[in-house]
Amino acid sequence: MWRGCWGGSTPGPGNVSLAQSSYTANENQSFISVLLERSNGNLGFLGVNFEVEDGLARSGVDYQYNAVPPIYLTSWQAPWPASEPISTSRMMSDGLFGNNFVPVSVYGTRYFEYREGWVNVSLFDDNVSQGDRNTTFRLANPTFADVFFLGGENIPLGGALGRSQVPFNIVDDDRRPGVLGFASTNFVVVESAGQAVITVIRTNGSFGTVSCRYEVVSGGTATANVDYQPRSGTLTFQNGVTNLTFTIPILNDSQVEPDETVFLRLTGPLAGGATLGLTNALLTIIDNDTPGGKLNFSQPVFGAMEGAG
Questions:
Q1: Contact (Cβ atoms closer than 8 angstroms) between residue 71 and residue 100
Q2: CA-to-CA distance for 215 and 265, rounded, in angstroms?
Q3: How many Cβ atoms from other residues are within 10 Å of residue 33's Cβ?
Q4: What is the dihedral of CA 39, 41, 46, 49, to 10 degrees?
Q5: Can you give the C-alpha Rg of the chain in angstroms?
Q6: Tens digits of per-residue pLDDT, 139-151?
Q7: Partner residues linked to 214 by β-bridges
Q8: What backbone phi and psi angles, to 5 degrees, belong to 185?
Q9: What are the DSSP calls for 186-230, one per residue?
């Protein structure tokens, strides 16, 4: 009589991967659930260490993760709510696989409220416009890979990692277009300089493209097309840009005369939702034809503490 035994293949423990090539979350959504995937085998337990590496996003400031490592257990005496009435298996080696929130057994049963596999990273909301912050999710050190017993003996299984490192981006929800205004109430130029450079700044936010108009207005002591050439136009701030300049051509002459002034004004804004801050400024043209030169205060206002001496 012929006697023999039938052989077959036994799946290994497989590997655990980050299910997505990248993860993104808004800072105001409280937390992000990180999907993992166990594939290419389901023999026994398999877990991994999960960590969030500090980048522009910082632990304790932008996010927090301090949970136990996620693990895929087996369907042996499975205690979780399931998609099938009979949800347990006869073998301790029947490991769960698929995603870590709703894993699957070898019989196709799905398990819910499987907290042993959950990976939830808490996010901290704030009111600061600081731009998006990025960091990295990482898997390391497959764990419980050798917790499998056959005939009372511990059998090393050797689980592995698939995709183990991906970028994570926290989207800033405090994106403010900013406030546009002159950088100073007073600008000064010597009439021989050829042009005056006027700076407009963007504060309290720099998100998006915004614009405003600038112009020379009447009321100053300088004469248009004699002491300066009037200018007007539009300044457009691209996303992230916080200062721009425009110029006023200055006309030199040989006459001895007092210093003269030009009134400047910002109007708008035209687009992007920004508001206006300091909208009026004074340009002073210093005459350079006085014999021996002139003495001027370096600034229009000075201050000191009464106890400074």
A1: no
A2: 5
A3: 12
A4: -40
A5: 35
A6: 998 876 445 555 5
A7: 233, 266
A8: -80, -20
A9: EEEEEGGGSEEEEEEEEES---S-EEEEEEEES-SSS-BTTTB--
pTM for the structure as a whole: 0.59
> What is the percentage of the chain residues whose pLDDT exceeds 70?
85
Q: What is the pLDDT of residue 296?
A: 63
pLDDT beyond 90 at 204: no
Closest CA to 177 of 142, 198, 207: 207
Residue ranges and CATH numbers for the domains of the chain are 15-171 (2.60.40.2030), 179-286 (2.60.40.2030)
pLDDT in tens, 247-273: 999 999 888 788 899 999 999 877 888
Q: How far apart are alpha carbons 300 and 308 in whole angstroms?
A: 20
Kindly tell me the burial class for residue 240, based on how many C-beta atoms sit within 10 Å of its own C-beta (0-12, 13-18, 19 or more): exposed
The closest alpha carbon to 233, from 245, 250, 251, 221, belongs to: 245
Nearest partner of 120 among 43, 56, 183, 32, judged by Cα? 32
